[in-house]
Amino acid sequence: MKRRNLKYRINWQDTWNEMRKERMIKPQISYDADFFKKTAQGFSMRIKFNDYEFGRKTTGILSEILADNFEVLEIGTGPGTLTIPLSKRVKSIVGIEFSKINAKNLKTNLEEDKLDNVEIVNKDWQEVDDDEIKGKFDLVVCSHFLWQVDDVERLLERMENASKKYCAVIQPCGRDEIVKEMFERLTNKKYTGQFEPDADYFAYVILREWGRLVNVRYLDYIHERNLEEEIRYMAGFIGKFMEIDKAVKEMMEKYLLEKKEEAMYREKSSAVVLWWSPDGRRG
């Protein structure tokens, strides 16, 4: 893979390591023994809102490069947020998903949509053999995945290794205001991005230093959650910094009921789509 030989490079790894320490802390949840199972099931249900809005809009952006005969490698499918809409536009997808719960939910969601062109590989991406995937795919994509890896540069290298034509990274931008407010109320600390999802700029810096011409697009999409889902959503972030027991859970519930009277909580979110060609072409 062609790289630029630069005299000066940005030291992003130290910053990445420090930020990742906070993001990868397992939340301290004691009010519900089935919290994580319910969270996974709830997410699988929510992605279907507005007919997979997030995945459809992402696929629409990637349509600039997609073709019906594309063979795709998706790293970290989750329950199918992107997989379901993307599979309707391409020949086939090999989806790598480590979580057994997510893999099971993806299988169910594919069956619901009568889709049979997705192969689910229930395996850690780090354990996938580079030689087995080298140059096999027209598109290699990962969505909501960057914070799962220690070394972003190594991830991008492996993506390019597996690609014949294109690579793409999709990452959320910014956190809901209501979550930030709840964090500050419970912890008495100023919110300074402790659990922002943004990680795309690390990938962009690395790719530009390599000499890649990166295409950047943005999209907006809607989240909709009921009260219990909203509490679990918030607890998943705030629980990294304090224990969420029954008393704290009740405080969160009271706050949410004061904030909104509606049965459902709707929030507009944004995401960034980066796509590029490993050989440096612009599209």
Question: Could you please describe the fold and organization of this structure?
Answer:
Helices cover 40% and strands 20% of the residues. The protein starts with 12 loop residues before the first helix and ends in a 7-residue tail after the last strand. The protein is globular. It has a seven-stranded mixed β-sheet with strand order 3-2-1-4-5-7-6, sandwiched between helices. The model has no long low-confidence stretch (mean pLDDT 92). The chain has one domain: 3-Layer(aba) Sandwich (Rossmann fold). With 283 residues, it is an alpha/beta fold.
Count of helix runs: 11
The radius of gyration over CA amounts to 19 Å
Placed side by side, the strands forming the largest sheet appear as: 3-2-1-4-5-7-6
Poorly predicted ranges (pLDDT <50, ≥5 residues)?
Answer: none
CATH topology: Rossmann fold
Q: Specify the helix fraction band.
A: 40-55%
The residue-averaged pLDDT reads: 92
Largest sheet at a glance?
Answer: 7 strands, mixed
Summarize the helix and strand pattern as letters. Answer: HHHEHEHEHEHEHHEHHE
N-C termini distance: 17 Å
Strand content: 15-25%
What would you call the structural class?
Answer: alpha/beta
What's the CATH architecture? Answer: 3-Layer(aba) Sandwich
CATH superfamily: Vaccinia Virus protein VP39
Count of individual beta strands: 7
3D shape: globular
Secondary-structure map with pairings?
Layout: H1 13-23, H2 35-46, H3 53-62, E1 71-75, H4 83-87, E2 92-96, H5 100-112, E3 118-121, H6 130-133, E4 137-143, H7 152-162, E5 163-173, H8 177-187, H9 200-210, E6 215-226, H10 227-238, H11 246-259, E7 264-276
Parallel strand pairs: 1-2, 1-4, 2-3, 4-5
Antiparallel strand pairs: 5-7, 6-7
Helix pairs in contact: 2-5, 10-11
